Amino acid sequence: MKLKIVCEKVFFAFLLAFSCILASCSGGISYVGISDSSSTADVKEYDITISSSEHGTVSANRTTAAAGDTVKLSAQPANGYELDTLSVTVSAGDTVMLTITPADGYELESVSVVDSEGNAVTVTETSFIMPESNVTVSATFKVASIVPSVPEELPTYSLVLDSSIVDGVISFDKKDEIAPGTTVSLTVSHLYAYELTGLSVRKDSGEEISLTEVEAEKKYTFDMPAENVLVSASFNKDELIEPLALEAIDAGAITVTNPKTNMCYALNGGERIAVVSGEPINVSAGDVVQFYADGGASETNILCDSDCYIYGNVMSLLSSGNFRNLTEITQNGALKCLFKGNGHIKNNSEKNILLPATTISSDVYFTMFEGCTSLTKAPALPATNLAQNCYGAMFYNCASLTEAPALPATNLAPNCYINMFYGCESLASAPALPATTLAESCYRGMFYRCASLASAPALPATTLAETCYRGMFYSCKSLENAPELPAATLVDNCYYNMFGGCKKIEEVICHATDVSASNCTTEWLNPWGSSSGTFKCPESMRYVWERSFSGIPVSWTIETF
Fold first, then answer.
1. How many other CB atoms are found less than 10 A from the CB of residue 429?
2. What is the pTM assigned to this prediction?
3. To which H or E segment does residue 550 belong?
4. Cβ(336)–Cβ(298) under 8 Å?
5. How far apart are CA 298 and CA 335, in angstroms?
6. How far apart are CA 363 and CA 344, in angstroms?
7. For residues 465 and 367, what is the distance between their CA atoms, to the nearest angstrom?
8. Please, which pLDDT band fits residue 261 given cuts at 50, 70 and 90?
9. CA distances (Å), 202 to each of 86, 180, 266, 398, in order?
10. Which among 29, 318, 394, 434 is least surrounded, fewest beta carbons within 10 Å?
11. SS3 for 129?
């Protein structure tokens, strides 16, 4: 009987063997014993033959062995190879037991025993009954299934948002179970007309964490420390930071003609896109289009083909980068005709149109909202330094306008308010007009055909100018009380047709003592005035006023004071 050892496909570093292998193989096959029916007194030795192998050598600690002896094997792979398989051939005997010990990192894949004719011999665990034939024992090993080690659980921390934050939203890409050193991103969003005034990120210990600004006033990052973090922010309301915007109520298109210098728009806060004259900006309901420009063209016109809300600071059309701080308009006609004919723009109940300039140039708002028949409220007009025709026909034929803005200016300019509210048939009240020194045609036609105007503002001016009040309240059919007129000296055309067609006015008080100017009272109340009423004047003027030229209805009574 011979024990034959065969080493095949030897690869470096892959030391697969049985527990009998020493030296370079940490695992192997230990041939434990072979039972034999011969007498124990006559112990039979068997030869051990080792076949030659490519790419390595196999050696045994002895050349013969009796049944039951242990044979130790060593496998030495050639450089660059490792042990792949090891087989043992045994002849004769009764019982063979194998001890199989894989090398570190490997596990037994299979054991097989076949006789000399290639028939399989049953293997029970690691033993088999020796047939009357030579047998070949083979074992193969594989890399052991790696059970991933569970790493030591490192502590993580949380990001806490200050619950007192109002008027803005802070969002972040990570909140809980954040490992120290992880980069956290914060995004700041403010409510309409609010701006970020403070942003603080602090450790639990109170130490401030420095932020890296990724996008101006919008996005920041920081590295998570080994403790929880509190994020706080403060916001301040400032409507001036919001650019001029149109918000679509219904789907449609917005078209700009004759765009200003560098005029562009941003859809829903996205990137700015250059405006192309006449090319529609398509919008869905709820879309917001914000406009920016750097002045230039004085007759830019923006039209909507479906209803839109209008709000924001119009100064964003004059300085795209610094409109928040712009309070002076130096370009003549800068916003002239801007929304002329746009019957689809409407007031938003919470967001205002802002025209914040306090010093304005000639024609700057001329016909700006002419024909905007859906507007109900005019924007505030804080300008106190006016220029010629600056508000001319600004709200011409805005038939739905019910609220007029305050007009604080006392330093007027020629035509500054001419036809300003002409045809505003729903306007029920007029703003105060505090100027005491007037300019040519300054109030001419200002409330012409404002059929719902029930009361007129006081007119304290004592120094008049040519045509200053001409047609000011013409055809104001609901006007019941005329303002008292304190000026002593009249000028050409100053009261011409001032209350023409005001059928409900029944009293006029005039302090004039010099009425020699041309047409100063022509058709003042005629030809459509009230059929009865009282005209009051100074005693010295009792016989100066004549109905034939003064515009006082024939049926009225003249009284003096």
1. 14
2. 0.67
3. helix 547-550
4. yes
5. 6
6. 24
7. 23
8. very high
9. 65, 14, 35, 54
10. 434
11. strand
Q: Rounded CA gap, 165 and 542, in Å? A: 71
Rounded CA-CA distance 467/493 in Å is: 5
The secondary structure of residue 42, as a DSSP letter, is S
Whole-number pLDDT of residue 10: 31
Nearest to 315 by CA among 300, 325, 303, 305: 325
Q: How far apart are the first and last CA of the chain?
A: 155
Integer Cα distance of 458 and 433 in angstroms:
7
Which tokens go with 56? 């390595």
CA 509 to CA 559: how far, in whole Å?
9
Q: Cα–Cα distance between 415 and 57 in angstroms, integer?
A: 114
Q: What is the DSSP string of 107-124?
A: EEEEEEEEETTS-EE--B
Helix (H) or strand (E) holding 135: strand 135-143
What is the full DSSP assignment across 501-535?
T-TT--EEEB--SB--STTTTTTSS-SSS-SS-EE
Average predicted confidence (pLDDT) for the chain? 84
State how far the Cα of 185 lies from the Cα of 417, in Å rounded to an integer: 53
Per-residue DSSP letter, 11: B
Give percent helix, percent strand, percent coil of the chain, each to the nearest 5.
5, 35, 65
pLDDT tens string 403-459:
899 999 999 999 999 999 999 999 999 999 999 999 999 999 999 999 999 999 999
For the record, the structure tokens of 51 come out as: 């076949």
The secondary structure of residue 314, as a DSSP letter, is G
Half-sphere exposure of 345 (CA within 13 A, CB side): 30
Cα separation, 290 vs 272, whole angstroms:
9
pLDDT at residue 124 in the model: 78
Residue 494 tokens read as 């100053």
Tokens at 150, concatenated: 């569970």
**CA-wise closest residue to 290 among 258, 261, 321, 316:** 316
Token readout for 49 is 């033959």
Residue 510, strand partner residues:
485
* Each residue's pLDDT tens digit, 262-303: 999 999 989 999 999 999 999 999 999 999 999 999 899 999
- Contact indicator for 352, 380 with CB cutoff of 8 Å: yes
Q: Which of 440, 443, 396 is nearest to 421 (CA)?
A: 396
Q: How far is CA 379 from CA 47, 197, 328, 394, 547, in A?
A: 114, 27, 17, 11, 42
DSSP string for 395-442: TTT-TT--BPPP----B--TTTTTTTTTT-TT---------SB--TTT
pLDDT band for position 52 (cuts 50, 70, 90):
low
Residue at token pair 């016909």: 367
pLDDT greater than 80 at residue 130: no
Q: Is 379 left (phi over 0), alpha (psi -120 to 50) or beta?
A: beta
